[in-house]
Amino acid sequence: MKLKNKIREMRLKKGYSQVELADMIGVSRQTIISIEKGICIPSTLLALKLSKTFGKTVNELFTISSKN
Q1: Relative to the CA of 39, which of 7, 14, 18, 46 has its CA 20 to 30 Å away?
Q2: Could you tell me the fold of the domain covering 2-57?
Q3: pLDDT per residue over 31-68, tens digit each?
Q4: Is the CB of residue 55 less than 8 Å from the CB of residue 64?
Q5: DSSP secondary structure code for residue 67 in this structure
Q6: Domain map of the chain by residue range?
Q7: Cα(36)–Cα(65) distance, rounded to whole angstroms?
């Protein structure tokens, strides 16, 4: 299974740069890049911060897909 996310899509929709989003939630730009690329799976706390920032539920931002 793979965790997919809509972080990049939501960030661009809100007009935030990676640096701006990182500053808002207290992480590095590299962390945002890693999450957007699906390299990094965010902690529960970080997922909740992203959820609050975008006004979406965690389930709206992150989904699990099967490899099939």
Answers
A1: 14
A2: 434 Repressor (Amino-terminal Domain) (1.10.260)
A3: 999 999 999 999 999 999 999 999 999 999 999 988 75
A4: no
A5: -
A6: 2-57
A7: 16
